[in-house]
Recover the amino acids of this structure.
């Protein structure tokens, strides 16, 4: 028996972030691949049964992870057991999720952490990921760590693959140099009321190329057929990656709106991430959702689609 309160909360998030409106108005899909770099996902969970999931790398001795399973369920977006209409079933079927066991223990030497992140980003690009979401914030500012990871981010950027990265849960100004990398989309966290969560990092580096998404008390899948709630910028990043996937899967429909082949096909990633940022104040959005000089705007996927489809 599924938790009714969590299911209602899931539906509200769908509506408040514009996923429900997008699904209602635009029903054309192409397969979209999202790479999740975190820990091991419980791929047997019923919530994920309609999603094609491919696990890469060694399976950890500690087994599946609650954190990664929760993130995967947010990227999937819909409880697969509740996919009772064709639109939701098609949306689920259009998602390809690839997972890597990237996160290492904090005590792991910086060089080993950087090498793992570098290898997994490169591998995700080789698997033709449309976007990558990292399940952890960048903490080490060791020069060698930054250089190694930055080279992988540059590879992803050159391939047109945005990397969504949690800004952090420390509640202070985000200063990590990798958040300024052109290949990174920093993600901040909103509370349930739509304002910046007090635990979320923020600051000019997050505004430059970043977005904000709700990350408080999100309904998620947990290992062993359980469910619950989760809070954190990594879960906001999962929702941002889901928003990107929803738009990327409809990219041909955006082109068809102009009666031509998609006019921005070669710059899909750049255009979509820019639209997610710009859409926060589109169409008379509530003031708390709009960007400031230090806080990015709250994403709204339907408004982002409208911006994209209005451009020639």
């Amino acid at each position: 028996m599924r938790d009714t309160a969590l299911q209602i909360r899931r539906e509200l998030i769908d509506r408040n972030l514009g996923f429900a409106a997008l699904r209602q108005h635009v029903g054309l899909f192409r397969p979209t691949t999202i790479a999740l770099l975190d820990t091991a996902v419980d791929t047997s969970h019923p919530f994920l049964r309609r999603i094609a999931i491919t696990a890469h790398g060694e399976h950890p001795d500690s087994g599946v992870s609650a954190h990664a399973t929760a993130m995967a369920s947010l990227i999937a977006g819909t409880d697969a057991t509740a996919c009772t209409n064709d639109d939701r079933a098609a949306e689920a079927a259009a998602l390809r999720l690839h997972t890597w066991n990237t996160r290492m223990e904090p005590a792991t030497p910086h060089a080993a952490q950087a090498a793992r992140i570098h290898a997994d980003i490169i591998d995700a690009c080789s698997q033709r990921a449309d976007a990558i979401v990292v399940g952890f914030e960048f903490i080490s500012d060791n020069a060698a760590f930054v250089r190694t990871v930055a080279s992988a981010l540059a590879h992803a950027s050159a391939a047109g693959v945005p990397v969504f990265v949690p800004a952090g849960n420390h509640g202070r100004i985000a200063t990590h140099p990798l958040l300024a990398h052109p290949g990174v989309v920093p993600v901040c966290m909103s509370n349930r009321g739509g304002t910046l969560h007090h635990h979320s990092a923020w600051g000019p580096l997050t505004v430059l190329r970043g977005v904000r998404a709700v990350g408080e008390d999100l309904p998620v899948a947990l290992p062993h057929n359980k469910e619950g709630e989760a809070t954190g910028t990594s879960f906001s990043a999962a929702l941002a990656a889901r928003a990107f996937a929803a738009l990327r899967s409809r990219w041909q429909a955006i082109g068809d709106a102009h009666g031509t082949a998609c006019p921005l096909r070669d710059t899909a990633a750049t255009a979509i991430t820019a639209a997610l940022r710009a859409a926060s104040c589109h169409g008379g959005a509530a003031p708390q959702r709009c960007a400031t000089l230090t806080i990015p705007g709250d994403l709204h996927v339907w408004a982002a689609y409208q911006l994209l489809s209005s451009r020639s």
The CA atoms of residues 257 and 309 lie 6 Å apart.
